[in-house]
């Protein structure tokens, strides 16, 4: 099978890839720019941390809203509206006169960012249907690429102009180019509305009995996975410092984690054309569990690489698997991103009290427990699909 079956699919796929680089850049700017935003608004670090809560709340509202909109309206105009909102937030964030205004701007940014994320995922699923797995992995690699480039954009802006504002404005200018790409082509149609879909194609089926159980299990898996990813990325530096690592080398562990995660998502693209997504999930989760259990015994740099590689393919593989198991509407995609947002808020909050009350020895066990629960969840999901009579579909070649 060719990489792209026609020029239309090639163009819309590239559009969604570019959109994911944009939202990766947008989300990746907040952390490195935090000291500058605190100085801008005169806020302390405890107060400026409210920006993460505002962004998470915007994420959750955006995930639900875009699902309803994409189901009822053409997807590309919806994404164009969200791009305009994101560019507006990027423009205003470094000009905010107070913390209250900045919190509102970051809320809008989080809303638009996750709306583009969920909308692009849904439309890419509609474009490729059961062959979407490798393309979803490539899509999420673009997001990780944007995350990695964001600190470099900030450094370049500071060296070029001495003003951090240009990092936000530069990303905003790049995001504006998406409007031309989105306007160029019509929106992919939902599978059930597509005339070329075969009657027996699983993606054209109406919602079946048992879909609610599958969706609930998938939402729990996405919540646990995102929680595990954010917990590791957010707390590994603090854990390393508490273990006696120098602050400089401890800070590099997050970079190693994101590098391994990006490389793993790139590697997953050909792997999903060769092996079952179930086997890829089991391999990733097994590596994640082994990495967590080995934390007390090995240097932390191979742990960061191993955990990043383990985490890399879980989200895109699970998301591609959704499309094999049920009809994926915008609403269902929105619910999955809502669950992901809840996991990102709730699970990392466990790490602080654990480190404070039980010491550093509790952190590896928290990570191992999350991976163990994910393994159990995948086993339950597999059993549910077998109970319904679902089977692995042919791999995209």
Keywords:
397 residues, mainly alpha, Growth Hormone, Chain: A, 2 domains, 16 helices, disordered C terminus, Major facilitator superfamily (MFS) profile domain-containing protein, membrane, MFS, transmembrane
Question: What can you see in these coordinates?
Answer:
This protein is mainly alpha-helical. The chain has two domains: 7-186, Up-down Bundle (Growth Hormone, Chain: A); 209-387, MFS general substrate transporter like domains (Growth Hormone, Chain: A, Up-down Bundle), CATH 1.20.1250.20. Helices cover 78% and strands 0% of the residues. It contains 16 helices and no strands. Helix 4 packs antiparallel against helix 5 and helix 11 (277-293) packs antiparallel against helix 16. 48% of the residues are buried. Residues 193-207 and 391-397 have low confidence and may be disordered.
Broad structural category:
mainly alpha
The main pleated sheet reads as: none
Overall body shape: globular
Give unreliable regions as ranges. 193-207, 391-397
What's the CATH superfamily of the largest domain, by name? MFS general substrate transporter like domains
- How far apart lie the N and C ends? 5 Å
**Which CATH architecture of the largest domain?**
Up-down Bundle
Bin the helical content.
over 70%
Integer-rounded radius of gyration: 21 Å
Give the H and E element order.
HHHHHHHHHHHHHHHH
CATH topology of the largest domain: the name is Growth Hormone, Chain: A
Enumerate how many helices there are, as a single number.
Answer: 16
| Average pLDDT score | 83
Highest-level CATH class of the largest domain: Mainly Alpha
Count of separate structural domains: 2
How many strands appear in the DSSP assignment?
0
> What share of the residues does DSSP label as strand, in percent?
under 5%
GO molecular function: transmembrane transporter activity
Keywords: Membrane, Transmembrane, Transmembrane helix
Pfam family, one: MFS_1
Protein name: Major facilitator superfamily (MFS) profile domain-containing protein
């Amino acid at each position: 099978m060719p990489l792209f079956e026609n020029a239309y699919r090639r163009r819309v796929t590239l559009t969604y890839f570019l959109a994911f680089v944009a939202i990766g850049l947008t989300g990746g700017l907040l952390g490195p720019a935090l000291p500058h935003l605190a100085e801008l608004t005169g806020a302390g670090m405890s107060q400026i941390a409210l920006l993460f809560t505002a962004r998470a709340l915007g994420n959750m509202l955006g995930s639900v809203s875009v699902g309803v909109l994409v189901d009822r309206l053409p997807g590309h105009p919806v994404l164009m509206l969200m791009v305009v909102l994101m560019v507006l937030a990027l423009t205003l964030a470094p000009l905010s006169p107070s913390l209250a205004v900045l919190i509102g701007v970051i809320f809008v940014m989080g809303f638009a960012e996750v709306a583009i994320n969920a909308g692009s995922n849904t439309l890419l699923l509609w474009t490729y249907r059961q062959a979407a797995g490798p393309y979803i992995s490539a899509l999420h690699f673009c997001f990780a690429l944007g995350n990695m480039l964001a600190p470099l954009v900030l450094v370049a802006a500071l060296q070029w102009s001495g003003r951090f504002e240009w990092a936000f404005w530069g990303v905003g200018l790049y995001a504006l180019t998406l409007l031309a790409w989105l306007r160029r082509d019509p929106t992919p149609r939902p599978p059930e509305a597509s005339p070329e879909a075969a009657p027996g194609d699983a993606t054209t089926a109406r919602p079946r009995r048992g879909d609610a159980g599958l969706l609930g299990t998938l939402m729990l898996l996405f919540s646990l996975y995102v929680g595990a990813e954010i917990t590791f990325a957010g707390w590994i530096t603090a854990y390393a410092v508490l273990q006696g690592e120098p602050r400089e080398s401890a800070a590099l562990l997050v970079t190693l984690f994101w590098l391994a995660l990006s490389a793993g998502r790139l590697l997953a693209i050909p792997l999903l054309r060769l092996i079952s997504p179930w086997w890829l999930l089991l391999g990733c989760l097994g590596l994640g569990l082994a990495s967590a259990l080995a934390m007390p015994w090995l240097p932390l740099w191979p742990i960061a690489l191993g955990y990043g590689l383990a985490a890399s393919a879980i989200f895109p593989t699970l998301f591609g698997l959704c499309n094999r198991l049920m009809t994926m509407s915008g609403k269902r995609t929105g619910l999955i991103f809502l669950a992901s947002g809840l996991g990102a808020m709730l699970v990392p909050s466990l790490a602080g009290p654990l480190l404070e009350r039980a010491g550093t020895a509790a952190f590896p066990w928290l990570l191992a427990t999350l991976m163990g629960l994910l393994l159990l969840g995948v086993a339950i999901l597999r059993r549910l699909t077998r109970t319904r009579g679902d089977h692995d579909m042919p791999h995209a070649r």
